[in-house]
Every structure is written in structure tokens, then in C-alpha cells.
Amino acid sequence: MHVGFIGLGNMGNGMAVNLLTAGHAVTAYNRSPAKVDALAQQGATPARTVAEACQGDVAQTMLADDGAVEQVTLGPDGIVASLPPGGTHVSSSTISVALARRLCSVHAEAGQSFVSAPVFGRPEAAAAAKLFVVAAGPPAVLDAVAPIFDAIGQRTFVVSEQPHAANLVKLSGNFLLATVIESLGEAMTLVEKAGVDPVAYVDILTSTLFDAPAYKTYGGLIARKSFEPAGFAAALGLKDVRLALQAAEELTVPLPLGSLLRDRFLTLLADGGGQLDWSAIASLARRDAGLGG
Amino acid sequence: MHVGFIGLGNMGNGMAVNLLTAGHAVTAYNRSPAKVDALAQQGATPARTVAEACQGDVAQTMLADDGAVEQVTLGPDGIVASLPPGGTHVSSSTISVALARRLCSVHAEAGQSFVSAPVFGRPEAAAAAKLFVVAAGPPAVLDAVAPIFDAIGQRTFVVSEQPHAANLVKLSGNFLLATVIESLGEAMTLVEKAGVDPVAYVDILTSTLFDAPAYKTYGGLIARKSFEPAGFAAALGLKDVRLALQAAEELTVPLPLGSLLRDRFLTLLADGGGQLDWSAIASLARRDAGLGG
Amino acid sequence: MHVGFIGLGNMGNGMAVNLLTAGHAVTAYNRSPAKVDALAQQGATPARTVAEACQGDVAQTMLADDGAVEQVTLGPDGIVASLPPGGTHVSSSTISVALARRLCSVHAEAGQSFVSAPVFGRPEAAAAAKLFVVAAGPPAVLDAVAPIFDAIGQRTFVVSEQPHAANLVKLSGNFLLATVIESLGEAMTLVEKAGVDPVAYVDILTSTLFDAPAYKTYGGLIARKSFEPAGFAAALGLKDVRLALQAAEELTVPLPLGSLLRDRFLTLLADGGGQLDWSAIASLARRDAGLGG
Amino acid sequence: MHVGFIGLGNMGNGMAVNLLTAGHAVTAYNRSPAKVDALAQQGATPARTVAEACQGDVAQTMLADDGAVEQVTLGPDGIVASLPPGGTHVSSSTISVALARRLCSVHAEAGQSFVSAPVFGRPEAAAAAKLFVVAAGPPAVLDAVAPIFDAIGQRTFVVSEQPHAANLVKLSGNFLLATVIESLGEAMTLVEKAGVDPVAYVDILTSTLFDAPAYKTYGGLIARKSFEPAGFAAALGLKDVRLALQAAEELTVPLPLGSLLRDRFLTLLADGGGQLDWSAIASLARRDAGLGG
Questions:
Q1: Domain end: D141, D161, D181, which one?
Q2: Are C241 and C96 in contact (CB under 8 A)?
């Protein structure tokens, strides 16, 4: 397929490379052009504007947040203005449910299709084409762009005909990860205050009931108090929890754990910790137990 | 070694069989004698009283709760009264930190040793000698009883010289499992209200970020609303969360997640659900979102 | 002064009458004109458009929510477009901090002044000129419009030179009232389940520690389960708690009680109770205790 | 009546004086005898043991906590052992529901009566015979001891025939006061971070919606950060919230506000603040908002 790929960050670059590897024609755009040039070395066609990246069948976006996606999609000479009728916007960014609904509607008015396809996986998985793709949209459109998902991921999960449902699933995944962090923060504080070594404790947990990457990764970071540099910043953690709560409010769903997490992140940010790794909310359980944060 | 084994429930019976298999001499006691007779067929010496089971080096207990352990240990003709000086009580039950402290002190006064060695694993793991043993106590005593741990488990974690620390680690494990249940309950309600199939959602989670038995087991139960018969009853879940909160209060550790879980279990019990599986607290998130529990 | 009064609801009508009584020239506008005609009987000049009500020194608004205030202020032929340079917009509605900031900035660009002056008090107090006015804005502007506050209220509290601070104080008042409701809901459920009569219990509370109108009003409604018709609807309660939480998030202030209240209101709305009085969240404490809501 | 009064603290002394003033014969006991001697100057008969104070119709206790009441009532030569058959124990201390149940049962076995009559009011109210008495017990017994209540209080509320119900009402009152403190802590932090003066804010609140002593007292303490010396220590606040939660758990009543308060008090105690006034939990809202506690 002919794919215009917009957003060559840590995740997007690996995804675009894998599209090339799978034989797709990729026109690439990035706000900072150095990354575009690097990708051109690997066979991509460089685009100097968003509009230039919207000349094919598909425009795929992998950007930081709602603001970036709004600008690239709805701005002058953006995707909606530039993609041919019948074209498809594949949105892989972690964005709000509300924005996904809005983009779906705007693209439809322009005679274009919109699908949400956020991914689970870290940059290494993106580079290795091992992402998990959570896709939602009209079945015929998803079928048409399936080769893209095959190129970037190890498996695709189709969750709904409504694109925004995929964004909600993605947000719920980050919500679940944040609860893992909070629960580890509380449990590790409890046993530490009874004299149990936190590193040994995490070893027990991850050897027994919780043999899962999330517990290993975050248990290790918390035990070592290793919150810098951030793998995923607390400010972004707050943003994703907020988006989950907003989506939940639109659906009239109370999320008491989400409320607790939101308060934790706000407390961390008020303490100046917004740039720390989001697992640093675990330090608040320690501080509240008199262990000094 | 010569081990008096007290408590032949689903867990204890498998543990006692494995002690026999490993070549230990086992004298077995159970409140209901039928299980003792069955074990005698496999080589155990039957005991008709607790005192008869306390004639060897070690008495190991695997009982339901604080009340049962108190009665067997401190009652007339109980373990303290019957075990020879120098003998060791290996307590594998999930009991309170406070009771563990008390038993440690009472046994010391009687010239006996006390170690806590609760286990992680379900009855199948107990039968297969695949338990994980969390042990705490004086190093020399733990060394002496290590053959018992080797016989029943696949790995032993020594966490402290203070026996009660092992009980706290065990309670913290159940606290973490309960948070998994609550977080799944909230996340699954959220995506279900957006039209995502809960079974498919659990498949996504456990194929990606949460490839761990706890998420598979409880995700499946919640998606199928399969809360009867209980694998672990909600009333017991409340008990363990309460014990964790009490231990935390003694250590002056706030556990906001623990507070939230306690309120959920109380709500479920007030609704008559005490005999349901503890994963039924997830139905409260559904009910509060207007999905009918 | 010459005041254009916009919004003749239960509160606004009483306020406008008192402006007339105090000798001010009032030009009145309301979306539904019948109320304008009624007020004209009492001496007001009727306005058929917002613009007609913006010909004097001051435009005062008393409207339902952010949406209404935005439309009247920023819409075509709205206050900003119609009020002469040097004129002042006195905003008495309960609106968000964010909107107050925005209106302040837009009016400044148009060479106009903006002050926030929300009020505490029910319709009877508005009719009796017994409101409490919480005012914020530039001191010289507040001095200039002080006669308006004197006409409608029994006392004016100036809280800041920044208009939005007054809106925050107003929102915080509703937050505090909602915590009174929630705390009464929990306490009354507790004693009721022990056999104490709720009406007698409220009598004890309000005769002793809590001799305040809020406890009498809401304690009585809860004891009698009298949630219809709503004095203040639960959907509006959720809105105000949400606005308080949003303002708090902008200031990086966690409000755990606010989070709890938000979850309660969402639960009530999910159960179809949005049109009930906001004190109906107390019925959730009863329901969660197995008393049937 | 002939009343043995046990416990001459700040509250008890005033109550005993008023019994004398009303013409009752009072035999007084206190752990520290100096207070007994002082009261003897006002007409009381001094007792050197609890037993000596139990020779009349009624023994009334006003002690610090469960431990003190247990010792005085159930200890050797305590009230149960010393009060004549047919005598009545009037318990005015703030004790647990569980202890009230137990004392009721033990006295009944001894052929004695037990009524709970905790009071609302501070030491000044006790001295002025202006207490509010919350009484529960068998109607005939309450009638018989009514002259005592008339002597110490301005009004008596009978809430149940079960004595422990009165203790629950008393605990619920402290729970409600603690929620007032927490809500003020959050609201005052919010407006302070927006630049509103806390003292002025409390003035607004208590002049308008919250014209009640609890808001004036605690609002003032919080605004001035005046937490020492404690009027009521945080450690006692935690105790009363814990007793309320325990009583609620026995009744299967979730109290989410109670859970939040318990976590706040634990956090304060972990920070070394157990001896501060219980209103110091408000400083945690400030700290969590980055204002430095």
C-alpha cells in the first residue's frame, strides 16, 4: 500500500521502518525533518508538509497527544484537507475518546474513512514488528488496511466498529498499569516497614503470583527508587488517567481506582515530580507511612 | 524428620502426602478423622488428638484462620502444652501478624521454636509439591526445618528473622490479588459500556501487558460472571484485607487501596454475597455504572 | 446606576427587582420574554435582545451554566460586542474558573471590565435582598459597582483582584455542601442499621454539634427520603463538583473528598437519578449497606 | 439519688459538681486522689477505691477509653463485683460499641442494669450543666436515672432500648466532626492556592452557609495552623474513627469517608503528629498540594 506516515518518534520510526520492510511505499513526515531524512536513507519518500504525506491511500499518525493529532489532522493543509476522498486515516496515537469521535465524524463529512489502531508495546517492540494492534472501525476499512497492521505488529485485535472503542481500550491498559504501580507502592511500603527487603519482596511476587512484565518492570523501579530518567513521565500518566476518567464520565461509569490514581499523580506533580517516571507515585505511599518518600 | 501435621484440608493433605513421599515420618491429625484414615493408607501414623501429633521434632499447622490456629496451639492439650522443649511449630496457615507475634512469644516461653511458613499456590500446586514457601524465623531453626520446605515446595523465600514478617508477606499477596480483581472490574465495566466484548477484552489484556495467571483467572471469572462455587469466598477475602489493614495500622501505614477494597467487600457482604467468589466484588463496579451488577 | 440584567430565573428575578427597588435603572433581558414583561410591570425597561440590555454602564448576568454565559457573552450581538468601552460585566452565575479567566481576558481586549460576583443564598434570600455576594475583580471596578451588591445582598465579601477567585469560592461552597450530604448519608445509614430512628438522629445532630441550616435541610431530606422535586438536581451537583475538580487540577490540588463525591454522583446518574435532588447521593450509602437505597 | 461517680477529668468533674448542686448524694472516685479531695470540699463523699464508690443506687463512669472502663468495671473489686444487685451502671464515656454490648451482658448476669449515656459538649458545657445526653437502655431504668441526666445536661435524647446504640451515636458525631475538618482542609487549600486569604474564607463560610460552631472552631484552627496544644489529640481522633469503622463493619456498613479519614490520621501519626490537635489532618491536604503542610 501507499502509506503516508506522520510522526517519527521512538515508536513511529520503528513502525515506519517495518512498513518499508514489508514492501509498502512510505512517504514520511515529521515536525523535525532530521528524522525524515534518516528514514529516507531506508527507502522512504520524504515529505516536507503534512499535505505531501497525504497523497496515498492511507495516512497513519503516531503522535504525542490530542493537541498534536488535532493540529496535524484538522489544521490548514492537514490530513482532512489533503487526503483524497476515499482515503483512510489510521490513528495509532494514544488520544482521547472524544477526539476519536470527532475525527471520525469530520473524516466522514470529507468522504474519508477513519480507524483507530493504538498499539501496546514499547519502542523495542515497535522496532521488532512485535506490537499488539488494537483496531476499531468499519470492517471493510479494517480489512483494507490489515496489511499495515500485519507489518507493524505480531497480532491485531479488532474490538468494535466504532473507532473510539480502540482508544478506550488503550487508555484502560494504562489505567491498569497505573493500578499495578499503586498497589506495589502500598504493598512494598507495608512489608518494608516490617523489615522485609523490597528487592527480595519483588523477587517473591514475580516468581509466584505475578510473573508478568508489568510487575517485574515496575517492582524493580520502585524497589530501586529509580525514577529518572522517566520511561513514561508522571505528567503523561496523569494525562492518560484523566482521559480515562473523562471517557468514563461520558459513559457514566465511576472508577474509584481511577480517582485515587488521579489524586496520587496530582500530589506527585504538586511536589515537582511531573518529569519523574510515573512509577514514582509509589514513593507517596512510602512518604505517607513516614518512610521519607 | 518426624513431623506432626495438623490440618488435612485441600492444601494440607497434599503437603502431608509430599512429606511422606520425601521420606519424612508423618503423624497426622485432622478435626474430621476420615481424612486422617485416608492419609494413613499412604503411610502416615494417625493421631486422634493434637497432643498425639506433637511427639516429634516438628508440628506443622495448615488451618483455616486465626481461631482454628489459636485453639489447636493454645488450647488445653494443644501444641504448646504437648510439643517437647526444643520442638518447633511450623505455621503455614494464613493468619494475622498479631497472632504470629503472640505464638512466637508463647512458644519461646515454653522453650519451643516458632517459624511462619505460609505458602503461595493452589491445591493443585500443593499436590504437586510446587508450592512457594515464604519462611521467616531464626536462621538456625529455618535451616533445621528446610527439608520440610523442600518436600512441599519448589522454592523457599526467607524474608526475615521475625516470623510474623512472613505472614505479612502472605497477606500482602492477597491484597495485591484483590487489587487486580478491583482494577479488572472497573476496566471491564468501562469498555463493556462502550460496546467491547469482555471476553475479547480479557484476551487482549492477557495476550499483551498482563500475561499472568492472576489476570487470566480473575479476568475469565469476571467476564463470565462465574462467581459460584467460590474458589475463595468473599467473606475470606474481607478477612484477609482486614488483617492486612490491621497489620498496616500497627505499623502506621495507610493503605488507601486496602480501604477501597474493604469497602467493596463490605458492600458485597451487605448484599448477601459473602459466599460468592471474592472476584464478585467486580460486579459492584458494573452495578455502580448502571449495568445491573 | 444603569444596569442591563440578563437572566430572570428564580434567582435573577429577585435580584433585578431589588435593583429596581434601590432606585437603579434596569433594562432586563430573558430568553423567554414573559418574565421580561412581568418585570416591566415593576418598572424595568424590557429588552428584546442581549444587545439592547447592554446600553448602560453595567451588564449583570445570572444564568444557568457555562454554556449559557458563553453564548450570551461571546455570541454575535453578545455582551462583548454590545457593551460600550469602559462598561462592566458583572457575572453572578456559578461558572467555571476557566470560563471566568477567559471572559476576563476577552473583555479586557474589548476595553471593558469584568468582575465575578456569585452569590450564596436561595431564591427566598434573593427576593429579600439577603444574598451574600462573593466579589472579585479590580478594586476600582468593584467600588464602582458596589451599589449593585448593596441592592441585592446583605453583605459583600471581596476575595481577590482576580475575578475567577470568586468563582472558585462559590464552587468550593457547593463542594462543602456536598460533603455534608455524603457524611450525613453515611452516618445516618450507620445508626439506622443499629436501630436508631433517622429523624430523631437528625434532631440530635442539629440540636447539638451541627446547629446549621445545611445540616437541618439535608438531614431532613435524607431522613424522609424526600428527593423529589429537586431543590438542586444531582446532575447540577455533579457539574459543580466537576468544575471544582477541574479548577483544582489546574492549581495542582488533589481533593480526595471531591473524587469520592464525583464517583457518588456518577453512580446516582448511572442509576437514573440525575433529576433527583443532589441529597439523593445519601441513598447510595444506604444501598451499599444492604438497606435498599 | 445516691450516685458513685468514677472519673473526675475535665468533663467528669463538672458533671459531678452538678450532681451535687442538684441535691444528689455523690461518692466520688478518681485514680489520682487529689481531684477527689477537691470535690469533697464541695460536698462529695470521697472514695479511695472503686468498690467504695459502688455502695449506692448508681455508679456513673466518665473515663478516657475502653481500657480504663474495662479495668474499672470488670477488674477485681470493680463495678460488677461491687455494685449491689439491682444497681445501675451509667456509662458516659466514649467507648466502643463492642464493649458496651459486653458490659450490658456482664451486668445483666450480675443482676445489675447498664445504660449508656455519652454526652455532647466540651468541658465548659459540662461545668455549666449544659451537656446534651444521648441515652439508651431499658425504658424503666432510663426513667429511674433521669434525674441524673437532668442534673448534668440541658436535654436528653433517648435513642434506643439497646445501650450500645447511644455509643454508636456518639462515635458517629465524632466521625461527622472529622469530615468537617477534612472538607475544610481540602477547600481551604484549594482557595488558598488561588490566592484567597484562609481567614477571610472561613469568615465567608461561617457567615453564610456554615454558621455552626464546628466550622468556626475548626476553620479558625486550620486557618491559623494552630494545632498545639491539642483540644482533642489526633491519636484519639484515629481511635474514634477506628471504633466507628469497627462498629460499621459489625453492622456490615461501608463508610468510604471513614476510610479516607482513617488513612489521613494514619498519615499524620506516621509523620509524628499524634499529639497534635486532630484538626491537623487538614495540613495533609496542604502538603499534598505542594504548600508545605
A1: D161
A2: no
